[in-house]
Amino acid sequence: APRDSYHLVGISFFILGLGTLLPWNFFITAIPYFQVRLVGASNSTTRILSTNHTGPEDAFNFNNWVTLLSQLPLLLFTLLNSFLYQCIPETVRILGSLLAILLLFALTAALVKVDMSPGPFFSITMASVCFINSFSAVLQGSLFGQLGTMPSTYSTLFLSGQGLAGIFAALAMLLSMASGVDAQTSALGYFITPCVGILMSIMCYLSLPHLKFARYYLANKPSQAQAQELETKAELLQSDENGIPDSSQKVALTLDLDLEKEPESEPDEPQKSGKPSVFVVFQKIWLTALCLVLVFTVTLSVFPAITAMVTSSTSPGKWSQFFNPICCFLLFNIMDWLGRSLTSYFLWPDEDSRLLPLLVCLRFLFVPLFMLCHVPQRSRLPTLFPQDAYFITFMLLFAISNGYLVSLTMCLAPRQVLPHEREVAGALMTFFLALGLSCGASLSFLFKALL
Length: 451
What we know:
Elements: H1 8-29, H2 31-38, H3 62-87, H4 90-111, H5 118-147, H6 152-178, H7 183-207, H8 212-219, H9 222-238, H10 247-265, H11 278-302, H12 318-342, H13 355-362, H14 366-371, H15 388-415, H16 422-450
């Protein structure tokens, strides 16, 4: 196989990963801007984030609806994508989705300059959110299909790009708030930023056919790509950076090679050319899939619907204005990304351990903890954790556990099935990921009503 010159293919998939989650992150990070528009305030006199100490009013239950109408299309089109790939070429699905997302974001940016009553603005914004996430689901599913033919390193780079999308959106929000310009210019600059990101994603995808490394893997069958990985491991057995590997490395790599070759040599194993049974694969990974659903159910039930309503308990000032963008969105995305990165160093607990479901269920404690933080718009529950330090501590643990457990379950599922069943396992896990997001978005309405 040719080399990835200057890591151009890796950089391209990193940027494509960033582009797939930019829409979702830019919408939820801009929740304060939308709330200000929906209470009928004039853009020319209101900053992108309200300086009112109690926080902007959540008119139209915007937090909940933007989450639900983002995740339901994701679930639906994740299912539809399994049929679309048979009748619509991959290039059309990927480029068409990117161009549609770009146009819809351009519309969102244009609406910043348009004075509009709250009702029509809410309807147009929700329709835009729905369509953008529908195209994002097709885009993400198609790119994951391409990554299945490439070395696993590129999947890691793609996921890292997705993890950094939230950090990118939070930093863009902070820069727009700190710029000192009027609210319209600040909001316009904020929404133009993802348009630039999507344009870069389009350019990266168009460059892939011109790179030998990408052509080699994307034009070949998965079995040929796997054979190439075996050849690479065989080369590693012969020498490392110093020319001689230590014995532990040699034993580990030899076992790895033997395990990967074993399914082909066993006559009783199903052939790779045969179609794997979805039901059989589900029986093997059902517990891991259930854990993934529960992780995202907890996360989306409170983030951002509840966490975006938490305000600082300190006196009004700069800190209270920047508290939520920093302590909610930026902190969540940084710790979530760190949590996902931890699985590059260790996978604990393993696929046979019953400790994983316990850890996943313990995350349900975050729901009451966040609901009892400093949320001014409440009528039923008391405030037991008014200090900012409580919310920051809860958010640190909440975010890093989300990132780690999501990445862990996605890594463990392929290890529970035979090599020729991994593509089906990946598709099933993608479906359950979307199912967990939708369940959490639906529950957010209930939890907000309980406040």
